[in-house]
Amino acid sequence: MDSNNTSKKFKEQLIKNVKKEVKQIMEEAVTRKFVHEESGSITSLCAAVEACLSQGLRRRALGLFKTSSTTALLHKMAKNFEPASIISQKVQEMENIDPNKPIILRRDSMASPRICPSCILNRRGSLTWLLFSNEKSVVVSPFRRSSSLTPARICTCTLNRRRSLTWLLFGNDNSDSCATRAASVNSTLTSSITLPNVHPPPLTKKNSAGSGLGPTSITLPKYLWIRLALFEKLLAVIIDHLVQNCSKYYEKDSLVADPDYGSILSSLLVGPCALDYSRTKSHDQFWTDPPADELVQRHRISSGYHTSPPCRTPINYRRNLHATSNDDNQRQTPISAKDYVESLHQNNRVTLLYGKNNVLVLPKDVTEPMAGYLSLHQTANSLIIKWTPNQLMNCHSPGTNQNDHPEIDASDKSQYWDYAMNVNVDEIVYVHCHQQGNDNGGTIVLVAQDGVQQPPIHFPQGGHLLAFLTCLENGLLPHGQLDPPLWPQRGKGKVFPKLRRKGRSQVQDISNDLSSNTEESRDYVFQIISKARHEEFLSRGEEILDSKIWSMPSAANNMLNKVRGHLESSSTNSSTSTSSSLDPVASPLLINNQTTSKDTGDSLQILCETMKKQIISRAFYGWLAYCRHLTTVRTHLSGLVNTVIIDSSDAETGLTKEKWYSFKNDSNLVNDDTKLEIFRLTYFGGVQHDIRKEVWPFLLGHYKFGSTVEEQNAVDLHCKQEYETTMSEWMAVEAIIRQKDRETMAANLAKLSSESTSGGDAPPPTPNTSKVLSQELSNDVFEDNINFSSDEDNPPVVDDTQLEHNVEVCDNPTSQPNINEHLENIPKEIDCDKKSLSSDEGLGKDEVTEKDMTIKKNTSEDTSLYCPTSVIVTTNISQEKSMENSNDENDKIDNKDNNNTSKLAVDDNEGAGGSNHEQRSACISPASSQGGIYPVELVENFGLNVHRIDKDVQRCDRNYPYFTLENLDKLRNIICTYVWDHLEMGYMQGMCDLVAPLLVILDDETLSYSCFCLLMERMSANFPHSGGAMDTHFANMRSLVQILDSEMFELMHENGDFTHFYFCYRWFLLDFKRELLYDDVFTVWETIWAAKEMSSSHFVLFFALALVETYRDIILANHMDFTDIIKFFNEMAEHHDAKTVLSLARNLVLQLQTLIENK
Amino acid sequence: MATRKKVLLKVIILGDSSVGKTSLMNQYVNKKFTNQYKATIGADFLTKEVMVDDRIVTMQIWDTAGQERFQSLGVAFYRGADCCVLVFDVTSPGSFKSLDGWRDEFLIQASPSDPDHFPFVVLGNKVDLDNRAVSTKRAQQWCQSKNGLPYFETSAKEAVNVEQAFKTIARNALAQESDVELYNEFPDQIKLDGGSSDNRSSGGDNCAC
Predict the structure, then answer these.
(1) ipTM of predicted complex
(2) What is the mean pLDDT of chain A?
(3) Is the Cβ of A1134 closer than 8 Å to some Cβ of chain B?
(4) Is the overall model pTM greater than 0.80, yes or no?
């Protein structure tokens, strides 16, 4: 029993593993666009399947003694199962590629130590495959020692899946053999390889697993057959076959033979077998399109050191002035910790050239040198050196899912972000190298153009300093170089000996205090010469204000006494290259400088003078641009915010219950004077949830501040009456519509069945039948009209008595005044009918439906009457009769027209106009529907709207518990009422979303309706065809982005479409209702309402801007275009941190206010 | 196995509101169905990598709002489409009737170089429901009248025919993509017989309910 239990548990565990892996792979398929064949999750899945299949295998019976593999099982199956034989054949083919060893042995030698770490890793994350693919491409070849750039790149490419490669590196702090950029990763696994060169990935298809790492080894992946079967989508079939025939291959108590688990196993694999696996990817695809949540996740890691974009200076006027190539560089210059994280994940724009852990750096204000990760990254146009303290890197252990700990004690880590280095090599002029003793490591000091030194970087022993310099030099090519070059005899394979040359090379006597304790002979200085810098400068033409040129002398000054020789050459360089293009004033000076370049003192002086002028002019232009810019801001954007800045002090708590009641109790009503305070509290802190129901009507203007309770009651009563009146009006029409729907549907069904029974070629409907149909339809409309039109003493709300009354009347189809018009309208009408027809038996119409049913029963007696012919008869009768009576009836009915129909029923009933108005006052009852004759257009139009409303109401927030059928009904009523009153506007998708939060809070139909109407005063203009407010929003957004985030603006400008701001469409249309969770929607909405009084009546713009700004770094870093952004924000919906965004939005308003005020 | 140029196929899904456009897209891309979808506002898209005749292509499938008046927004989304999927609800003749309008709208907005041969694929969705109101025959007739558009009866809910339909969509879109170059060489080939196709489409109208 015990053993039974444990085996059961074991099986459970096995199945659980498979489930987990299946889930993983399915998720991968969803979040990415494909599952790559080398994905780690495939390996994990295969392992899990293998484990299941191995359990209880009848090895002896099958002759599988030596091996734990199930491959032999496959070959066995292949004899009598077609899919298995396909796979078996493929496996054999692939094994034959490798001439060395029988593959099975190798695959099964899993106990080899090298595999172990990867197995462990595999359990932690899905890095296994990465490591294997990495091994495969690195083959030790003692003959090729020169490290050239290209193969190294290939290697780094294969290394890069976008998962946290570097975390892995940091998890293995003890590995100390990183010699070159490529080796940095390899060494974690293969410490024996110190200087691997790179062999291009072999072309063989499956060569990526590696346990036997021989000189020419090409190894097959683990679980080859399972993997292949999965790719061929046959795995589920094969396993199913195994399960069916388990007795043949498996012990009785095995998992496969288990009646439950066996079938579970095979059915679990159906999903993965339906996926597409591919490996013909360009390397780019390894890192393209991470889903939004991962982008945010990555970003979050660095959020401890948030540069908080909103807090940047509001205007980068200078950048606007000199926007172009200069800006690109600046964008690449990482300013936030995010970039560390971002670029440590290699992506398609940034290549990792070098990485070394445990490099010591002594940051400012720190007494002990700290260990950290040094890396060299190449972007499109610059090199970046990064150093990140281990404390930061280790805060996420490789196995930890970062999702679980988004908020890692930011305060704790933030100081380390301050220590982290991020240096753009473009800005570095000198690299000082100091070596202590024989191979005791080395120290590098980077000196920037402005003379500022970066903290010394101390490399551990083992030639890492040299390796770093090698990579740096390679990275600089082709546009730059180290001077003196490290290895003038490059290509001769003398990488190491070069170091000896330093003694002879231009020895720099560094009297720097930093270097005082080092051996002079082992110190030297490299200058970084960037050709690109000069070319760039040339291309810039008259732009004399280039920062790189003018900042040169300051560096020069600092270094004057130390590195004179270099300076000489550099100033010459710069002057020669600049002189040709500089403006007339500057160039003679520089040419002069060139000629007298021997006299360094003079040349420097002249240079400095030039610089001085340039600095002054630069400042002047900057100021000028700033002034112009502010003018633009004031002209275009001052309307967006209120001029008065409201103090936020003590308002963060928001409007609490206590405060609200204290306001109320003071004067027993919400005083007009307290209005501002209430708005202020709401704006800065929101309203406490319990009292929203009370506060919202005030915020929205349903109740006036300062109104008495009686007044409020009066308002409510008035609204209620109006609401009910309108409702009874449209409900009457709706009854007609329902009736019509039924008829049309019946006709359709009849047609459908006739079509299907007619077999062969169903003839297109003849004119006859269509005529019949239209008559039927118009007739229905008609009869319903009578119901109400001939009914004089209706009670306010349509009820059963009325119905009975109606029934009586409609048995007498004589009062049909305008049958002729109707008949004329038939062709048009029937078209519309079909359009508006819906089979929807939606919600929210039980009342009506009941009535409908009654009417239907009485008018058409029986459903059998749907038969067209019988309807024709009715029509004919009624037509004749109406001919007789039409004149009399006309007048009679017209008189019964009341206020509503006189407005809406612009019917063909002549002479109705005048008499109607007299009737209106007499009609106190809200049942205006009683006598309505509804013009066809009206019915059509409203019918169309009702059908749409039904569709959308049903779909509205189905997952939100409040929306039970009953409440959906309310929702529907509100919208129908609104649409009835605004038929010219009609129903528009999105209205549901606007009503829903109101209804949730107010939980009262009438009140919600009234508030919705008030809300729509602002919102309706956003909807298409009704105001074009959306375009204004977009334009304003554009201006705001331009003013408040020029960097973002440039990105958007690059991608032309982007400026359309379509991604904001839903935001503005629904006041962010779809972007946020319900609780947040409430807060944001009330803030928007309060903002009108407090700061800006366009607060939505600022909230939208805040949303964009929240993710600006992600958007910029990933260089998102129009579609990327749409996708990003759609995926991010309901994942925003509304509180932060909201305070950011308030902040942005404040920024703009300050900007405008500051004259 | 040669690495060919990566192909991006833009597919637009059109059709009346609540015919199941979002569901179809999600069923195809994510293999999921939920009855929790709300009315689409604005536009969204999903991408999926598929293998079409040994070529890997990325399908960018755009889901649009169903209410016509939102379509004026769609111009930006329509442009550059390689295939247009017209969806109707087999239980709603109205949505079937609208196909003409959607097709015309698309042709006007996207203005493809060869409107007569632009690949449309017609999907009759919700075949899992039993209150069917548009017969297969009628749908097929309509498709026939439009130069024989491919027609599929699908159920996004039960994943019936969805995969097959989108396979066709991908294939036709890909064909369109490669055709474009051909047609560009002979711009004169653009046929001006829009009138005749209109006639045909009105003929299609007659057969509808």
Answers:
(1) 0.84
(2) 65
(3) no
(4) no
